Amino acid sequence: MREDLPEDEADFEVRLVQIGDGAAGDRLDKALAAAVPDLSRARLQALMAEGLIRRDGAALTSGSSKAAVGEYEILIPPPAPAEPQPEAIPLTVLFEDEDLIVIDKPAGMAVHPAPGTDSGTLVNALLHHCGDSLSGVGGVARPGIVHRLDKETSGVMVAAKSDAAHQGLSKLFATHDIDRVYVALTRGAPHPSKGTVDTLIGRSSSDRKKMAVLKSGGRQAITHYAVEKAFGPQEKPLAARVSCRLQTGRTHQIRVHMASKGAPCLGDPVYGSGTPAPVVREAITASGLSRQALHAAVLGFVHPVTGQTLRFETPMPADMAGLEAALSAL
């Protein structure tokens, strides 16, 4: 074990990899994958995003950068903790049959275990509720999970209980044959009041914990939005209720897209740059909102096993509903 590693990396496996002349100039992730065949490019990209691939002590964050001749240090975290355990966490179940389950996820619940969050997740709750019937296609840590909501985003989610449902739902998400509508309460209002945001989204080069709109690289992200109600002066709204229909489903997509329109979700600690007007801040405090004001309100799809058309819609939870009521008084 390396003695000079930071304390939180002391248990990491360290790989020292040499890149020779033959790979110089190739994409860095490609060159490293060729040099370390037991690590996929996706795994290497994830390690880069965590700042765990270094050269001369400096963290490398872009897999698309050019490989240079020399020695690279790859830090590999220890395996995740043991498989998640069932926990008797109450769930709001909207629909359930032998193949799938649809729930209304509360804000504050992570979808699956991750470093620092190994309990209290939706997976822990589903393991208790569904027993051994959850699909195993998602792997030990993410049984049944076919899509995610951010921990602090509330709303409708579906999980697979059979492998057939898991494969069918995954295909529907991959081909964007899912109806997903979110409600966001934003600082100001996007302009124009209705439109489509079509960008590339990928990891921010300045902050590895954030996603960003990119000029190149990343993945295409498409959000159709419409301002349902504006609050405050008509010529310059202080806040708005915005309906966002996802055509794609990238990490933090709506949060990034609304911020790119100059109207970030209220309460968003990551993308909510700028300060809301004093009366909006007062409304946030009065409502008790302590997260991004984003709710997955609608989820519609064709049942992958029975062929039944399903559509679920849930109201905003109390914190967002309270905030909207306070904003309506502006």
From TrEMBL:
SUPFAM superfamilies: Pseudouridine synthase (SSF55120). Its EC number is 5.4.99.-. It catalyses: a uridine in RNA = a pseudouridine in RNA; uridine(1911/1915/1917) in 23S rRNA = pseudouridine(1911/1915/1917) in 23S rRNA. Keywords: Isomerase, RNA-binding. Residues 99-260 form the Pseudouridine synthase RsuA/RluA-like domain. InterPro entries: PsdUridine_synth_cat_dom_sf, PsdUridine_synth_RluA-like_CS, PsdUridine_synth_RluC/D, PsdUridine_synth_RsuA/RluA, RluA_PseudoU_synthase, S4_RNA-bd_sf. This is Pseudouridine synthase. It comes from Caulobacter sp. 73W. GO terms for molecular function: 23S rRNA pseudouridine(1911/1915/1917) synthase activity; RNA binding. Belongs to the pseudouridine synthase RluA family. It is an enzyme of class 5 (isomerase). Responsible for synthesis of pseudouridine from uracil. The active site is at D150. It comes from the Bacteria. GO terms for biological process: enzyme-directed rRNA pseudouridine synthesis. PROSITE patterns: PSI_RLU (PS01129), S4 (PS50889).
